[in-house]
Amino acid sequence: MICLGKNSLPSIVSFGEEEILVGNPALNYHDLSSILYDSKRLIGWKFMYNLPIAENRLLWSFNLDSRNGTVGYILKSNEGTERFVTPEEVSSMILRKVKTIAETYLGANVTGAVVAVPAFFQENQIASTKEAIKMAGLELKCLIEEPTAAAIAYNAERQLENSRIMIFDFGGGTLDICISEINSGHLTIKAVTGDPHLG
Questions:
Q1: What family, per the record (predicted)?
Q2: For a Cys staple, 87 with which of 39, 92, 126, 165, CB 3.0–4.6 Å?
Q3: 111 to each of 99, 104, 133, 137, how far by Cα in Å?
Q4: What residue numbers bound the domain in which 162 lies?
Q5: Average pLDDT estimate for 39-65
Q6: 102 within a domain of the structure (yes/no)
Q7: Mind listing the pLDDT tens digit for each residue in 162-175?
Q8: What is the CA radius of gyration of the chain?
């Protein structure tokens, strides 16, 4: 059980005047411009003009800018001051929340993580994701593509033998696909692809 009776954790962080909320509690925050999400879409990009998802800007309730060589969120306080928050910071807050939930569930410290990223992630996005993992206080054990992680989980649950499987990972705004073969207990990834605009 992840949080508040849910079995998943929304990748959302809200910045209030007095507290920062992560996951389900952040959904109820009243100031939409202070609710940050889609950090996975923004992570690793340096300038606004090279964001491959410009059409999404019309749908976002938060403000963006490019500062110090990175795209980030702009938060404005009631007093009019601005705070620049990077996607890496938002991602690290979400990862810290997942770490806390895992530690509560396991009754033990969690120091490392296997993290999955979209199949279409570029090197700049992977590097920034690794930075977010480090900021969250976790040691990266392995970085794999999301559809590969789904194939591993599917096989672990079903213990298939001599099979070919195709995994479709329909996300909130993306699609990842993985074709795998399972022979003699070994999972072999044959192909992975994705579309960052279909989901």
A1: Belongs to the heat shock protein 70 family.
A2: 39
A3: 8, 13, 11, 7
A4: 111-199
A5: 78
A6: no
A7: 889 898 888 777 78
A8: 18
Q: Domain count of the chain?
A: 2
Residues 139 and 192 in one domain: yes
Interacting residues of 161 by C-beta distance below 8 A, sequence separation 6+:
182, 183, 184, 185
Do 189 and 123 have their domain in common? yes
Looking at the predicted structure, is the pLDDT value of residue 69 above 60?
A: yes
Q: What is the CATH number of the domain that holds 58?
A: 3.30.420.40
| Per-residue pLDDT tens over the stretch 88-108 | 999 999 999 999 999 999 999
For 113-138, what is each residue's pLDDT tens digit?
999 998 888 999 999 999 999 999 99
Q: How many CB atoms lie within 10 A of CB 111?
A: 11
Classify residue 101: in a domain, yes or no. no
The model's pTM: 0.86
Angle (nearest 5°) at CA 122 between 121 and 127 = 95
Characterise 8 by phi-psi region: left (phi > 0), alpha (psi -120 to 50), beta (else): beta
State the sign of the Cα–Cα–Cα–Cα dihedral 129, 50, 38, 41. Answer: negative
User: How many Cα atoms sit within 13 Å of 87 on the Cβ side?
Assistant: 26
